[in-house]
Membrane-bound metal-dependent hydrolase YbcI (DUF457 family)
Amino acid sequence: MDPYLYLFFHVLSHALLGAVIAYCFLPRATWKDLMICLCSGALCGIIPDIFGDRSVAPWSHSILFTPLLALGIAYLTKLFYKKTSFKLFWGSSILSVLFGHLFLDYMGHDLPAFYPFSDKSYIMGAITLGDPWIWFPLSMGLGLSIFLRNKSKLPIITSILFIVGYIVFRIISKEIIEQKVQVQHKKFLKSHML
Ligand SMILES: [Zn+2]
């Protein structure tokens, strides 16, 4: 894939997952509220990368700094909503940064999850970022939910369940392949030692 296109879908996946999480929790009674809710969630989904790559700013990809990043966005969001409690924005923003960005990154590439206490990077490596099986269902779910306007969260919940199922499937496939490779490798070593 074209590297720019890959980057675009990578960022889109983060933004969509962040926005979808915000959609589940934040007020969206009017069009204005809906737009603020989606922008706030999408911003949470991409904020760790705004501070730079993991090699430049490892702290932004650490779960220990997630509440702090979310705090800034929650504060910004609260400026637009007067009646809703700040705790709700903070909680929702934490979830959007955590799942919309860090979880997705962890599934695709390495993550310094406990920086600065540990430099160890964690990676599941089950999906490639920009995977259409992530952004396509999410955009369909979000699109349908917006179209149905407040009547139902069903399309969005369905799209979340779909991508969770897909990720679990990818993790299991990866484990099976790795085990098979290990078995073959052992067989190969044995046959060459005899
Ligand atoms: Zn990232």
